[in-house]
Amino acid sequence: MFKSLKLxxxxxxxxxxFFYSCTTTTKKDEQNIESTEQKYExxxxxxxxxxxxxxxxxxxxxxxxxKNLAFCAPRCMFIHLADSSNNxxxxxxxxxVTDYYTTQKIDxxxxxxxxxxxxxxxxxxxxVPFSKQEDAQSFMQEHNGKKIYSFEExxxxxxxxxxx
Length: 164
Ligand SMILES: [Zn+2]
What we know:
Elements: H1 2-23, H2 27-31, H3 33-43, E1 60-64, E2 67-71, H4 74-82, E3 92-98, E4 105-107, E5 112-115, E6 128-130, H5 133-142, E7 147-150, H6 156-163
Antiparallel strand pairs: 1-2, 1-3, 3-4, 5-6, 5-7
């Protein structure tokens, strides 16, 4: 209960800071309508629609085709990337995933992802990201993980296999 209160408080503070930053933006930003649209896209999960700021320990930020795309968890991002019709996978400019141990944003393209563990994200079975291979290995041992993947190894077949 305390945890959820703390989370609610955190979300409230984040929202307050967001509105505060909106009211103090420079004139240049105010004139840029496109930046307002990007902020909206940055918030809700591109795959499932959940507000990603509610899940700071799982959140993924992706920039592709010059657009900012937010995801509530790696699972939603990999499902989106596996859909070749959106051309996102072939035009990635920047990808930040959240390291499970440090909860810091790390480069998703060089991260190590553990599957099959007993830790679930807001979406269920997931690819749990780590910046260090040693961390991925110790997490896998502690939480009955099945396998460690690099970003390049996670294709459509792997997404289907690991998330079903
Ligand atoms: Zn999602």
